[in-house]
Amino acid sequence: MHCTKFSVCIAFAAIFLLGIQGWAQQFPGVEENIPYLVTFGKDGVTSWGDDDFSQTFFVSIPKSQKDPIYIRVFDPDVGGALDEMKGSFNTKCKFTVYGGVGNFTTPSARHWDPEVNPAGTPLASKTFGIDPKYDNQWYAFGPYNPTEGEYFAPLDAYIFKVIADGVSGDDGNLYKYFLSTKPDRDVKIEGANAFTYEYSFRLPDRPANESTICHIYPFVGKDVVSIRQHNFDWDEDGTIRLVSIARKGEPLKMSL
After folding, report:
1. What is the pLDDT of residues 147-180, one digit of tens each?
2. Phi, psi (5° rounding) for residue 34?
3. Neighbour count for residue 184 (Cβ, 10 Å)
4. Can you give the pTM of this predicted structure?
5. What is the tally of helices (H) and strands (E) in the chain?
6. For 71-85, how does the pLDDT look when each residue is reduced to its tens digit (9 = 90+)?
7. Please, how many CA atoms are within 13 Å of residue 213, restricted to the half-sphere of its CB?
8. CB burial readout 36-62, b (16+ within 10 A) else e
């Protein structure tokens, strides 16, 4: 099992979104074949796959959504069977949900440096360590009125932000999110979506002599003139290929 990080830099002819998009209301999405996101404690070593010990996702809720919404986190604790232990578990991970004006449109809010991106209004925060109550279980942030997010006209949607910070320790917290209209089960929000500019995730387990393919979908709007992909700590765990209408599986450079 191995953790890696992707970031996508997109150059625009005009200022407009986005980064890596989640196509489902579970993120990572099922179609990506990426089992879990991962965030290490701030005392972790970068050779385990996390270069900044923080991960930011944005959540887009359509203006037409009137009912309250929840951001659910699966396995938010750090100390169970899913998590990446280094020695013994000593890590705490803080999840914070932001809304309000500027949580997305402030330029620094879209920067993946954890010291830069907490723009906006904190709506809720919870720190998890070893907690059997949330091992392989869900925790729900909310309810939130969609208008508690920041309205963004190009999407005709309200934007929320959720940041996972490894505030202490050196273990890896593996988790995933789901957008829902219910706190205790996954009920999709019609037209909602999630996206990020930097994606730190766990590669799936691979049976001996079998290949596994993961898929990442950068959002490319009509004003995009170029795209650049970066990856961190690939460790020769396979190959990376670009697939598009023009490029049918072009190999990309991989990090060490």
Report:
1. 999 999 999 999 999 999 999 999 999 999 999 9
2. -110, 115
3. 10
4. 0.87
5. 0, 17
6. 999 999 999 989 999
7. 6
8. bbbbbbbebeeebbbbbbbbbbbbbbe
